[in-house]
Design goal:
Elements: E1 8-16, H1 30-47, E2 51-63, E3 69-85, H2 86-89, H3 119-129
Antiparallel strand pairs: 1-3, 2-3
Amino acid sequence: MSCKKGYKVYEYKVISAPRKGLKAKGIKSHEDRFANSLQELMNSKAHEGWEFVRAETLPSEERSGFRSTNVVYRSVLVFRKKVQEAAEEFTPAPPPVWEDTAPSQFFETLPEPVEAESLDDDQDSSKANA
């Protein structure tokens, strides 16, 4: 998920709205039973961490028969849950930890350089042998 720093990132859940009322003690009218079913559904989603956003009525195209389709309107409830803030996404990695080692461990000890005889001495000795 990429998002600008400081913005909130949400996950959404869309469910069908209840069509029938829910019976409960002391609730007698159809309207109150319907409201009770919505209340129970919304409270159960809130306990799961979902926040109610809105109710929508949306068109849905359905097949009715072999060649025909009908448009049916469905009521849905939209919930959201905060996943993370975008700032949390950009936490820097910790710096590397270097071991405390002496630099001499990384370098070989080379033998001392040997002084080479000059070329003039070599030429003089070759003339003497001739």
